[in-house]
Amino acid sequence: MSTTTLAVLVPLLPFLGAVAGLLLGRSAPGFVRPLAILPTLAAAVLAVTVAVRQGGGQPISTATELTPTGSVPIDLSLYIDGFAALVAVLVGVVATCVQLYSTAYLREDPRYPSYAALVSLFTSAMLLVVYSGDLMVLLVGWEVMGICSYFLVGHYWETEAARSASLKAFLVTKLGDVPFLIGLFALATDAGSFRITKILGTVAAGGLDHPTLIALLLLAGVAGKSAQFPLHTWLPDAMAGPTPVSALIHAATMVAAGVYFIARLLPVFTASAAALVVMAVMAAVTMVGSALAALAQDDIKRVLAYSTIGQLAYMTGALAVGDRGAAVFHLLSHGAFKALLFLGAGVIIHAAGTNSLAAMSRMDGLAKRIPDAFWTMTIALLALAAIPPFAGFFSKEAVLVAAEQTATGHSDLAPSAAGWLVLIAGVLTALLTAAYAARLWLMAFRGRGAAAPDHGKEPFAMTGVLWLLAVPSVAFGLAADSIADWFDGRALTPTVATSVLGTGAAVIGAMLTYALWQRATAKTATAPAAGPATAAAEQPAAVAATVSAATAAAESAAETPEVAEVTHEHPTVPAGPAADPGRALLGPLHRHAADGFHLDAVYDRLFVRPVRAAAHLVSFLDREVVDTYVRGAGSGTRLLGGLVRRAQTGNVQSYLSALLAGAVVLAIATAVLANVNAGS
Asked: Are 100 and 65 in contact (CB under 8 A)?
């Protein structure tokens, strides 16, 4: 079978599995799990086969005209280079792991058939984006992912949180998709085609008339899809969906699509220095802001959500300095350890019965209850913190090396200002990333208090997947030299300077967090001794606020819909203060960081309230003005009808009398007019 045929089957098989799953979910429930797993697994195997055959060599390109348009043609085309081949493998492997994991995680969920079908459709859409060689066909996959995310995030639609989160994700990403679509049409108009190969040829020949405008329009769509400032606020709220969905969205689909799109069309962006500086600013603000927010979150999934935003900002920063190899390398590395982190978090939630880190910090022995999750999460957090020799170290160093080369003038693809922005923000974020990774590990696995609930060993479908993903989280970075040949050939190996900067910052962040955790633990250990009322009176205001806020957060998290779906029974959430080093580390900034720096409130005042006020005004005008004319027309007709109805008595004599009177009036009028005319 030809490589082209295999490539066509890669997105097609999950799509067929999704259709079959939706059709047979109710009538033949025994086929649901095989239809969820086998097509996705086959797609992953075929993606590996395509990658082996492509081998990082010449791109595989083929096309056929999909439909005549009369102007810019739309082609059904494939364009598979080294980037596409490896990203497709990532999507297939992570999607297969998510489907396997979900069979155990959502085994009691009555809506599992539709969930599994939507995950397959989600996977198919992302694979279409990865392999597509035509921007219009790519847009189809791009939008299908948005629809799937709406349904999957809103899986627990009985709850207000899930409904609001799904709607918010859909609207915010659509807000970016409007300029994105305009940018696609502008790009195709300048290039005369939607084909990626022809567009890149036009850019190389200097044929773009409006490179800055096009790049900024496309960047708006990428900011929405990949959750970059200022359109990132939907992603933390999307944690209202099931944890396996979060793993799929954060690791291999949806948010990765924006970064991958820029990598595909990077020459379009490098044609405008202004667009690269804007991208660098966006990346710097996003990575620092999201890392600060992650330090203040109590929900373990929201910590990982903000972490994803920051890691995507690293990739965007690499693209801003013109190195798509480093960006996609970090995308692949991040996909492995972030999927592991979310799926591991699912096991923790499954065992602890809460999403709250504050509640977990008051549980003793949670690590012993779930040893598989403990060890694999430790590996993933070390990779996230970029500690050598884990995968995250090599991929993050590749980004910092690219930024350093641009900042010092050794690369002419991007302005040096972009390089300095990405480098400084990247080193600072490395410190903050290690800090919130250490905080998560300490609060989740080193809690002290009541014994953690024991539900027995977790299903192998969940723990086996964790160990499978732990392998690339450890070893993938060692393939940096060979992977470079699949990309643009630029070296992806760390340098001494960036290694010292990045690793040193990470070690400082982790050690500082550990020291603050020990101090917080010592304080909380002595706090309950004097009784709740006395302790609250003796503690400083900040500590008392910590106790009440942490307790409220733990109680709220314990009632989340996912916990009700997946835990064996609800443990009582322990009361009392939580040892949280994040508050001490952030100080007065903690309150603002916990609320995402109030961006939702800003958007509410700038956009939501004016739109609602305009809607109320339109409703008022429609009701009081337009409806008044409508009601007036109806009332006038009824009045005239009433008058006419009075003459319709049904009495023949009355009709004859009226007819005679009318005839007399007409005769008199005729005589008068005749006399007048005769006199004139």
From this structure: no
